Amino acid sequence: MRALGIDPVHETRETFRALLDAMSRPGTVESVPEPADYAVVATLVDHEVTVATDDETLREALSSQGRLDAAPPEVADIVHARESHAFDVRECTRGTLVEPSGGATVVYEAECASGRSEDLTPVTLFGPGVDGTATLSVGVPPSELDALATAQSEYPRGVDAVFAAGDRVAAIPRSVTLTVSDETTADETAAEEVA
Fold first, then answer.
1. What pLDDT digit, counting tens, does each position of 80-123 carry?
2. Which residues contact 132 (CB under 8 A, 6 or more apart)?
3. N or C, which terminus of the chain has less Cβ within 10 Å?
4. Is 78 within the bounds of a domain?
């Protein structure tokens, strides 16, 4: 994926290991090659999965490799979500009770940080791989995270979410329960009341 600035051997291998760590330890942030969202998509997309993205650079790079099997976000295996995406994560495929692994992986182009971070939305996580609870802050609105929580509410069905920007990546797998911080919701409500 040199067209994306990603070494197709060494850096995709590095990204795969980081994704495994991030998925197995939700709430942690791992380092990957930049740009992180491209590195994640280049690592996950092969000739057997469908992908939804409105990023022309990414589409052209995948197409030139014969790896672009495009599909709408509602049925794609990998969904690349930029800041102004126009789909509802609750409508992405969530797999079945028999084959829950058929659920989509949604790759958000968004900053992420362990713990609380100013200007990012904190979520509380608990479930497999989390020691008690963990806080992850991500650069997506609370409403999107609420929709993600709904998409993951019928375990083992759900979607896996990956947040990637710069050289950082974090994940919230479908097995984990997430709640948007009450503090964030209160701040958002106060802002609406002032407006």
1. 998 778 899 999 999 999 999 899 999 999 999 999 998 999 99
2. 126
3. C
4. yes
